[in-house]
Amino acid sequence: MSKISVELPDGKTYKYIYESGLLYDELILNLVPDKDLKTQIENILNLDIRENDVYLATFPKNGTHWVWEILGMLKNGRSTYDTKTKQSATLDFQSPELIGNITSPRILNCHYPCKLTPKGVFNKGVKIVHVMRNPKDVIVSCYYHMKIMAGELFQLSFQEFLPLMIGDYGTYFFYPWFKYVKEWERFSKKHPDQILNIYYEDLKENSVREIKKMDTFLGTGQTGDVIKEIAEACRFKNMKKADAEVKLPEEFMIKAGRPCLYRLGEVGDWKNHFTLEQNEQVDKWIEENLIETELSFKYTL
């Protein structure tokens, strides 16, 4: 692991840990077993994967909780909330032993990029659901995620955080967003039958339609009524309520102070944060970095 210091224009310095393309600050590193990111990445790559696992791949703040709950309900054939949270099956921060103790069918979720996906997912042809979200809302959501997780320890303003998301400080928050989506796009073209790409905005626009896609992809064969019940149970306000009333505290979330990670869940909140200049800057960044891709994002509904 390498230590990287990022100096802001006003002279403030922030320290990060860098390993295999991932950038973690000290707060996030504290959630990694033994605070050893290098070993955790190796453990994930070599994780024992079962053929009936489902692998949920998402960049941070791309609807992981939402889709994890949907996939679990499809697999179980009912719209009942699991008392466990998606953090119980989050590979980024759980030990191989804890992941191994999860009863099948497992809905594993991970924020790692395609190149750091468990080898067994590819070798065994495990079904992959990849969720994408427009980068402007991702930037805003990541900012508030850090404010909620770190509290007073997170001192960056949105104006200071934005350059970290688009690489203006010479490095990127977590992992370059555009590399993440492009790597999965390349994989999708080579293995179209193994992966389903879902857009957050499409799921927000018509959840029943998108859940039907997941049902067909997984071969779970749920009826239209069950799919509608799942869509209703997984509406943002209902999931937020379930998070507070149904979910049992996980050691991982207790360690993080068990913050509520549900904020707005809307499309287009970026308009409330971006200045005209920032919007033009991010538009240029998106255009430059998504050249020669077929990816297309909705920024409002």
Summarize it:
The chain is an alpha/beta fold.
Question: What's the overall geometry?
Answer: globular
Q: Termini separation (Å)?
A: 42 Å
Largest sheet: 4 strands, parallel
Number of helices: 14
Poorly predicted runs: none
Helix content: 40-55%
Order of helices and strands: EEEHHEHHEHEHHHEHHHHHH
| Strand residue percentage | 5-15%
CA-based gyration radius: 19 Å
The tally of beta strands, per DSSP, is: 7
Query: What's the rounded overall pLDDT mean?
Result: 91
Taking strands numbered 1, 2, ... along the chain, how are they ordered across the largest sheet?
Answer: 5-4-6-7
The secondary structure category is alpha/beta
Please tell me about this protein's structure.
With 301 residues, this protein is α/β, with parallel strands linked by helices. 44% of the residues lie in helices and 12% in strands. It contains 14 helices and seven strands. The protein has helices at residues 26-29, 37-45, 64-76, 96-100, 119-123, 135-150, 158-165, 177-190, 200-205, 207-218, 224-233, 236-245, 251-255, 276-289, and strands at 2-7, 13-19, 22-25, 54-58, 107-110, 127-132, 195-199. The strands form two sheets. Strands 5-4-6-7 form a four-stranded parallel β-sheet, sandwiched between helices. α3 (64-76) packs across α10 (207-218) and α10 (207-218) crosses α11 (224-233). The longest helix is centred in the middle third of the chain and has 16 residues, at 135-150. The radius of gyration is 19 Å and the shape is globular. It starts with a strand and ends in a 12-residue tail after the last helix.
